[in-house]
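Hi V.,

You were right to ask for the full record rather than a summary. Here it is.
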Amino acid sequence: MAKVADPTAVREQVRAFALGLPGAVEEFPWGESVIKVNKKVFVFLGVDDGSHPPGVTLKLKDPEAHAHALTAPGAEPAGYGLGKSGWVRVPLAEQGAPPAELLCDWAEESYRVIAPKKLIAELDGG
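Predicted structure:
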């Protein structure tokens, strides 16, 4: 049986990756960790106090990435109507949850949807 990656470690890898993107900052509205660029959220990391199952929520405009994310165990369109605009919540504690590397790719995809062009150019080494 495949070992389930430690959800806390996976969440931390995604957080560290997202914070490494140009202009990214972490804030804690509603007591949950979010990563923003240009004052707009591109990754919701939720709370890490154990009160909710660990997961990440990302905006995936690319139809392939969006569809792929929704195939993750327990994944669903994000609540509060965010699912309609491409946001997907991906649980991290489920058997077969996506690996950190894939989640980081999705975090970058989400960043590219939201970040200003000049920061995307910086990310691309421009």
